[in-house]
């Protein structure tokens, strides 16, 4: 039985990935991580184990690793993250995402929190899980583990033609750099950066124009995850498998 670990599993894309993989054949073991409990629809599934985890907390990740011990993980899907909007402005400018992340309103608190969760949280999670991802014992290089990090086109410097989005853009650029380094430093694990599209996930409190459902995004993303190999390590791909230069 393969083991899949999913962060941000209680909502949005993480939940959609959980629903997809928990019903796939053969049934894998799912390790579901989030800072809030899973919805009832999936919490009682026999192949799902839930862990109340803050990925930006080293103590929280340490407890997770103690629980996992040396168990091998075949696939990690890291979906946990935040949008980096200034909360005070969100209340004033409801429905206007751009207005909540301009240079005029951006705060140090918002910027640092976004980096802590999106960038430091990603680094901490990967580092903590490396013993469970690397081949050992019966787990040979023929069963190479994959780590899929949900990034964003907004983390592409060359694609930035609109400006704004200071906290989120910067945190995703840094996240991409972190994952690229892991792809170089840990070649026995495949690290993928995946842009799932503009998805209605709850990162903002209202639906953005052109946003697709998590289920539609996951349907495309799963195909990329299954086919991408070492040649895609540290490369940012969209949900159709096309390269996004960053």
TrEMBL record:
<dbReference type="InterPro" id="IPR036291">
    <property type="entry name" value="NAD(P)-bd_dom_sf"/>
</dbReference>
<dbReference type="InterPro" id="IPR002347">
    <property type="entry name" value="SDR_fam"/>
</dbReference>
<dbReference type="Pfam" id="PF00106">
    <property type="entry name" value="adh_short"/>
</dbReference>
<protein>
    <submittedName>
        <fullName>NAD(P)-binding protein</fullName>
    </submittedName>
</protein>
<dbReference type="GO" id="GO:0016616">
    <property type="term" value="F:oxidoreductase activity, acting on the CH-OH group of donors, NAD or NADP as acceptor"/>
</dbReference>
<dbReference type="InterPro" id="IPR052184">
    <property type="entry name" value="SDR_enzymes"/>
</dbReference>
